[in-house]
Amino acid sequence: MLDPELDRSLVGLITQWNIAEQRIKRAEQVRGNEIVAAAIFELRYAGRKIIDSIEIVLNFDIANDTEKRSRVANYLADATEDCVKSKHDAIDAMLNFVTSWFDELEKKVGPKRLHETFPDYLEVLGLISGIQEQIAESRSDRNKLRDAIYNRIDGDDYERILKLFVIMKSSSERVALIARKERQKENTDRNWKLTMLLVALSGWATLLINQYRNNSFPFTVEQEAPYNSGQRSINPSKSGPL
Fold first, then answer.
1. Cα-atom radius of gyration of the chain, to the nearest Å?
2. Distance (Å, rounded) from C-alpha 136 to C-alpha 124?
3. How far apart are the C-alpha atoms of 77 and 10, rounded to whole Å?
4. Higher confidence at residue 85 or residue 175?
5. How far from chain centre, in Å, is Cα 177?
6. Model confidence over 35-54: pLDDT tens digits?
7. What does each C-alpha distance from 57 to 9, 77, 176 come to in angstroms?
């Protein structure tokens, strides 16, 4: 349409735009149709640059105007980069949402109940940790390395995380209800045991008090008769005639 080099740029731009759109749509579905603002803003920036490039193509002969052609090429490259950033922002938004949702559910239900109900839960947490490390690694290079890392993220592990999220979300209310009933039962059992302990301690205390009142306290110590300094002790075996 334009020239081979610009045509390749357009094909790359279209590819990145479509991927970004798909990821944004998916992120919004996961987030309950909540708008992924950062990713949409990047697409908006890309759209502005696409319009600027089209305007130049329509109004100038870029085949014979090197400066105008260079501007079109730069606009297309910048728009492509904005689409790539949009892809990354969509994954970040989705992963952050899922991680926060897991944390909130774990606070309500408890890790033990979650692991019992969803055996893959702990392993998926490990996958999330690994993905977060990859994202941190990608920040050292915001160009090819970063996009390659995000493309790896958008793979099997990512699919597994989202699959578990969908399953957990569909059954989260029931799991939370079961956990709440279990906590109520645990509280009831604990209160019952505490009551029984208090009753036993009260009975023991009452027994000790009654024994004390009846001078039969089990830990009494025999007391010696008080010493009278005015009374002389007489040993009959050694006493002589008066």
1. 40
2. 18
3. 9
4. 85
5. 20
6. 799 999 999 999 999 999 99
7. 14, 15, 59
